[in-house]
Amino acid sequence: MKHLHAKCLKAALEATRCQGLRQVKDDYFTASIDGVAFTADDVQGFISFGVKIVVGVINEGNNRRYISVAADDDLGDGEYDVSLDGKVTIGYIIEKAGEPTLEYPAESGRAHICGEGNRQEFSGSFNVTLIDESPYKEIEATFKVTNLQQLS
């Protein structure tokens, strides 16, 4: 994953853990992971390090699952390739209490990104294939977050 995207993702995940549930009425992150529904009960968006990121979270007791979408802040509205080190990166993360965090980045795919001219909103859709080492193969999703928070 691109260095600045990884740095922003780390800060965003830490912020979501600290802030707790803060679902905004019009925000959403819905996906299908190998055909299994993923509907986030928390959606948070951030901007930092020249990157916009949205994180959809499902809380399952002490366990959490995340899907993240990070895009370079200078991208206009449009279709973009998704890759491990491109301008758009996507990942699936699983945290289970007492176990190592599992991270499965998207190796390839396409994303439609919206939000040009509005630095406070980030939305879009994507269809990606995860890395070969992942037990999960494909994620299709749509997302929208209306108030990006500045991370330091």
Return the average pLDDT rounded to an integer: 88
Please give the count of helices. 1
Q: Please trace the helix and strand order, writing H or E for each element.
A: HEEEEEEEEEEE
Largest sheet: 11 strands, mixed
Please report the distance between the alpha carbons of the first and last residues.
20 Å
**Which range does the strand content fall in?**
over 45%
Based on CA atoms alone, the radius of gyration comes out at 14 Å
Please tell me what the overall shape is.
globular
Low-confidence stretches: none
Structural class: mainly beta
* Structure summary, number of beta strands: 11
Write the layout of secondary structure elements.
Layout: H1 3-19, E1 28-33, E2 36-39, E3 42-48, E4 51-60, E5 63-72, E6 78-82, E7 88-95, E8 102-114, E9 122-130, E10 138-145, E11 149-150
Parallel strand pairs: 3-11
Antiparallel strand pairs: 1-2, 1-10, 3-4, 4-5, 5-7, 6-8, 7-8, 8-9, 9-10
